[in-house]
Design brief:
Layout (H helix, E strand, L loop, with lengths): L4 H25 L3 H18 L7 E2 L2 H12 L5 H24 L11 H24 L9 H10 L6 H20 L5 H15 L27 H33 L5 H17 L6 E2 L1 H9 L6 H16 L1 H5 L3 H11 L7 H9 L3 H14 L1 H21 L3 E7 L5 E3 L6 E2 L4 E6 L8 H15 L3 E5 L8 H16 L3 E5 L3 H9 L3 H5 L5 H10 L2
Parallel strand pairs: 6-7, 7-8
Antiparallel strand pairs: 1-2, 3-4, 3-5, 3-6
Length: 535
Amino acid sequence: MRFDPKDLVAGLAVAGLMIPEGVAYAGIAGLDPARALAAGIAGGFAYALVGRSRFAIVSPTSSSAAILAAALASLPGDATTRAVLATVLVGMTGLIFLGAALFRLGSLSAFVSRAVLRGFAFGLAITIVIRQLPKLLGIAGIAAGNIAAMAAEIAGGLRRANPASALIGLAALTLLVLVRARWPRVPVTLAVLAAGILASVGLDLSAHGVALAGTIRLSAPAFDVPVLAPGDWARMAQLAVPIALILFAESWGTIRTMALRHGDTIESNRELVALGVANMASALVRGMPVGAGFSAGAASEAAGAHSRLTALTAALAVLLLALFATGLIAAIPEPVLAAVVIAALAHALSPGPLVRLFRLDRDQWIAVGAALGVLTLGVLNGMLAAVALSVAALLHTYARPRISALGRVGDGHDFVDMRQHADARGLPGVGIYRPNAPLFFANAEGALAEVARMAARDGAHTVVLSLEQSADLDSTAVEALGEFVGAEGKAGRRVILARLHDRARAVLAASGLDGVAATGTFSVADAVAQAMREQ
């Protein structure tokens, strides 16, 4: 790790964001703020030693805090019991990451589509902002629950807002947004925190009803394991899975985006190990789930981080402040903390990514469904519903593949979809068809039935079936293909397979369809030439 003094300055700037965000995220999860700071310290040190991204700042994130809150709300017991169970969830999250790395499952992050992530981020940002509004405006007595009901309750409770809290919170939010938009490299968060502390001490804000962050005491590492029934352990593991999933999706999205932007090399399974170690370290200090959040990563990038020394400096600065400046942290007004969180999420509130999907006319309803799922079902169920929606959309696309009728372009060897290319021409007596998705158990029978219907309609005596999309075939697809060839033969049509991959050819031969495999050619042009010779 190369030493660069600029990383020290960048680390101090990031620490100024980690403290208020950590305290605010602990409030989202309903936990002691010390747990968030401890998590940022332990997780930050662990990732800096194991991870590879120079921009990643591993600490509590807004999404994991919200999912942790939903998970804890579903568990029985008082606040003390839930605090213990929160530690168990963090440890299990770390074990899930390490297990996923052991089985090389980093590539599974691709199953959470970017459209889902964008919709989820948009819905989550709205959820968190609404939950921060009572703190920003000083409205007491707002019950956390359904977002629509909470928003209505906030609107009805505006008359109860504390004027001093509202003034401080809105002023801090305005300053954060305006300065970041005009001068993104200016450490405005530190300035706002300092101003908030000065106002708290100098004007005795607590006497005016303004809530403060309160005293923070870090805990010593713990090695005790709670006694739970087997069913309780299973329930905890079930709740830890979505926490790990969203943490990796959010972290990998942040890490990969910044790596691509700067030409850095990263590897998904290595990052799984780093996140696993970071969460295990957080569990040892009774912390919260940690990941590479976008707001902290963006702050590290904007501050000019050159190596992981930035993350080490930030973690060390938070540790020193938590040990020797607890009085200053305790004096931070809650409206200022809320303003910091809302400002950090301002980028996620932009509808731009969703509008772009509508312009492309691709995946827009998946993104909208993900956002609505978070807002209507809650963070935990909304995230699970969003992932299910993404997988369902994939299965729907593959289960009903479009069949292209191919034609020759001029006198050459190129065969393209005739619906897309007006200059492509079909061949007399030869129907050339391509399923535009891999053949597998869910679509093989339907796709081949559609090919048979098109061949009969076109009056083809030879069917060239292009399998370029099917690198391999499962047992159902093999059987369906054999039945298709037999049925076409009875109808007086010969079938020639084009673009037959080696693995598909091997499984056809192994299943006893040697004759079908023998017709396979490496190109559509070769299949057409064979068909024309046999006319």
